[in-house]
Design a protein that fits this description.
This protein is α/β, with parallel strands linked by helices. It has helices at 14-20, 54-65, 80-88, 133-141, 167-176, 192-201, 211-219, 236-241, 260-269, 275-280, and strands spanning 2-3, 11-12, 34-35, 43-49, 71-76, 94-97, 109-123, 158-162, 187-189, 205-210, 224-226, 247-254, 284-285.
Length: 288
């Protein structure tokens, strides 16, 4: 659990108006927000969910706090399903989800703030440069257990999957046409940093993680290789262009139409003022 103790501004968002008129938040493209009078903001906001979104939301919250010292944040990870569930049950003011809402979650409100991709990563020393969907599915089903069978070294594959609450798991299931019950993994990783660290320490490991987080860690010196998907490199630029096949929306979720402090923070997160932070984490902003 992370506690904050400061604050930031607030904006009116066109996405809210679009939703009120019957458009879903996923369909709405937030326009530039108009700044309003934010004097006197105070209180606490609890956000839970996606570890992919966690570092970005931390920084947005700090920027918000900097302008509103009487506003405090409690931000916790735990996966997108937790964020959605906590928002629905009002255990959190705002849920963080690195996937769009499903049909059975239609009663909730979702506000997309960025796009991200999911890629498979291996250790930088692994000679494998790419894997087809069929090869990836065979690795995760346990049909391929040695890297030499897919062009690598004569070494046993360390298959790492993700825990049940991870939105990455759902995206990979759909992409590879594989059910999580079929996956034969040696271990499970929860948050993205844990998954990335596992691969960085094991030259024979493979796992799927956020493109943005993997790019950040690689740039910071982690010995990683991001594998392409359908021949498209796993980069923020390709996620932005829409050419990278495994991509998703990063959304803020609420149980009701936001008002007060909750609305102020969502408005701020969706404003053009956050573009620099979104790009800092290699995500693709919805507002440019």
């Amino acid at each position: 659990m992370i506690q904050f103790s400061k604050a930031l501004p607030r904006f009116l968002l066109s996405a809210l108006a679009l939703i009120a008129c019957g458009c879903s938040a996923e369909e709405a493209s937030p326009g530039q927000a108009d700044q309003i009078n934010l004097s006197g903001l105070n209180g606490k906001l609890v956000l839970t969910g996606s570890s992919t979104m966690f570092p970005l939301i931390q920084e947005i919250a700090r920027r918000f706090e900097a302008q509103h010292p009487e506003v405090h944040f409690e931000i916790q990870m735990g996966g997108s399903l937790r964020g959605i569930s906590d928002a629905r049950q009002r255990k959190a003011d705002i849920g963080m989800s690195s996937r769009a809402l499903n049909d059975n979650e239609h009663e909730l409100f979702a506000y997309p703030i960025a796009r991200d991709g999911v890629c498979f990563i291996v250790h930088a020393d692994n000679p494998v440069q790419s894997l087809t969907d069929r090869q990836l599915a065979d690795i995760y089903r346990g049909k391929v257990t040695n890297w030499k069978d897919v062009g690598g070294k004569n070494s046993t594959v360390t298959v790492i999957s993700r825990t049940e609450t991870r939105s990455e798991l759902e995206l990979v299931e759909n992409s590879l046409h594989i059910n999580r019950r079929e996956i034969k993994a040696q271990s499970l990783a929860g948050d993205n940093p844990v998954a990335i660290d596992a691969v960085a320490k094991d030259p024979n490991a493979i796992v799927f993680v956020s493109v943005g987080e993997a790019e950040r860690c690689k740039k910071a010196g982690a010995p990683l290789k991001l594998l392409p998907a359908d021949g498209i490199a796993a980069t923020e630029g390709n996620v932005r262009s829409g050419s990278f096949p495994l991509s998703r929306s990063l959304v803020l979720v609420t149980s009701d139409f936001p008002a007060g402090l909750k609305k102020a923070f969502i408005d701020f997160a969706l404003s053009p003022q956050m573009t620099d932070l979104i790009r800092k984490y290699s995500f693709v902003p919805f507002v440019d």
